[in-house]
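Review form for a predicted model. The reviewer records the input and the model, then writes brief findings.
Reviewer: anonymous (R2)
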Amino acid sequence: MIYAIEEINNSSLLPNVKLGYEIYDTCLDVSFALRSTLKLMEKTDDKLIGCADEKDNITSTKNIKAVIGEWLSEVSVAVARLLALNLTPQISYGATSQILSRKEKFPSFLRTTPSDLIQARAITELVKSMNWKAVGIFGSEDEYGKYGSEQLNDNFRNDDVCVEFKVVLPADFEKNNAALNTVLDKIQNSYTEAIVIFTHEHNVRRIFEGAIERGIRKTWIASDAWSTSKNISKMPNIQKVGRVIGVIIQRNKVPGFDDYLVHLASKKNFHSTFLYEYLSNYSMCVGLSSQNPNGCLSSGSVKNCVDAQCLQNMYKQDESYEPHSIYLAVKVIAQALKNLLKCNNETCENTNTFQAWELWSNLQLLEEIKQVNLSVTNDSYLTFNKNGDPTVGYEIFDWEINEKGVNLVVFGTYESDRIHLNKIDNETDDMVTPPGNCSKSCSPGYELKSNIGTCCKTCKRCEEGQYSDGTMECKSCSDHEYSNDNKTGCVTKTNKYLEWNDPFSIILVSFGSVGIVLTLMVLVLFAVYRTTPIVKATGKYICFVALLALLGCFCSVMLFPGLPSNVSCMAGLPLFAISFTICVSCVLANLLQIFAGFAFKLNFGNWIKRLNKPAAVVMACSSVQIVLCILWLTLYPPQQHENNGHEREILIECDVVSVGFFIGTLAYIAFLAALSFLFAFKGKQLPDLYKNASFITISMLIYLVVWMIFIPVYVNMSGEYKRAIEATAILITSYSLLACYFGPKCYIILWKSQLNEESAIIEYVRQHYNNKRVSTVTS
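Model under review:
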């Protein structure tokens, strides 16, 4: 700081303005810091000590413009609360606690080091880049360790990194053997791949001493509080703790500082309290005494501590970021003063001095500091965000431990929310590999599964329908795929349906074709013998309507084999329903004709005769079914459906969509069949030369039984043969009607032609009523 102030005073940055300083040692203690701050805030008129040479004869009122410090976060918090009262700018070179970013509590606080929020993000990205999945965290009961460890814990959990433990070390950890043993036991029994120690070096030293004693080797991640500490790196047997990766705020050399130290050492009879304090912090000059401040012991030999080579060697060994951060803090204040006083290289336009601790003066300077844009290197600049935090990144380095000591080997940086690593070396020795049956990675076909309560993960085989290609987690195959036997990939499912070359399809098509041919033959036969009594007894033209409808039933069977489509699904069952309804309606109309012809002795003969209108009966009965089918196809049309419920197949089937309409159409046919059955059964007492009633009874009974069995089977069945069962039911009912209703008539036409005469019919009727002693002639 002294060097930076002297550099500014000897430059033209602030012409005719000299910066002074007062330096207080807070001893890293809050009470000392508060006492020093209150002393700075006193309004006294005395000569500034150490700020100017006596020959300059300069006196000034103590007029503190800004405060630089403190290094510790908890000390800076206490000081910032005082300085916030009158908005005196405070710039810290080492306090990193994220709570200091809260401007509502610390409005005049800024810093040249980033907050722990950024450091925590850098450590999180480091862990992710190294592909570590399990970590442990140590913090401490102070502003630095408590908030930093909490932020790390949140980051890891958000990024799916398992935190096996987060321990906040007690304030008396250095002297608490029980707490140390608990910590060491937790480390020794953990499954962590890396342990983050986010605390100060005195706690770290205690942990490492215990780890070395127990022979614990781990991968440690050092926060900036101890990552460059020589007190830690020079511990005996430090190489036994394992690998140490550190993060530190980006370091830059203070320009000209080496020469300045050489110049200091070359001064004769130099006695500097500041220099003495500075040198006493380094091991190479630990022999320095207050009686002989110019002498020190190093490796058993006496050297002159102010020797240029001694200072140069000492400074080269200093790996910390603080010198440059302090240098930047002074530069920022000077730049803000230059802007506020409107200075050029020769003079300052605003020569009015600030009044000591005036709120307005402090606020003006504070606002100027916030707007500073200071060049750090040729391609980087220091600016402050709205929270007073700088745009500074982090270096990531390895401790390279050898016989000569520890070298810090930088292998990455974190800046602008991005991590850049020159190498990714996640060693696979006993420090990193999880112990026991735990796994860090799995072969393809397996996934890592966490065990409850620990970060120990084990490999488990992917379930059916899932696969893993080495990404450590199983993924689900799409609905059209299934996992292969090794669970390493997905295979496209086979489309399953009732194919044309399936034996069942061939049988259905064969029987359907035979039915079509037989129906056409009957149609031709009836057309040839249309004037004969037996064709007339079948309903005349009504029988041709029935045969055409029956032809539609057999044709509908052809829509069931093959790949279902929306068209085939919509046409299949409705076509059968309408066609078979017409058939049954024709049968019912024919039965009503027979009843009307022989109803002279039946007590319901009058109203039955009014129903002797075959065309009207067929149209009325058929129209109900037609309306039902139109509503079904309009509101809930059957459609192709892909059933993915099977493991390796996609069942392509027809979905009726509306079970209500599906059952309704079949129920309506059942209703007509039941009516026909009742009339046919009742008609057995009538003269029936051709046994119509008996055969119709059998046909309708077959329909009722077949579809009563079919409906529950169909609703609960699944598979490609579901449509085959449906087609089979259609064939059985169609053949029953063809065989029972039209078969006997064809037999009489072809082989019993003598019964196909009117005289035969009259004689049969006469004998029927004679046997019943009923006269066929009425007045």
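Findings: The chain has a mean pLDDT of 80.
Further findings: The CA atoms of residues 714 and 726 lie 7 Å apart.
Recommendation: see findings above.
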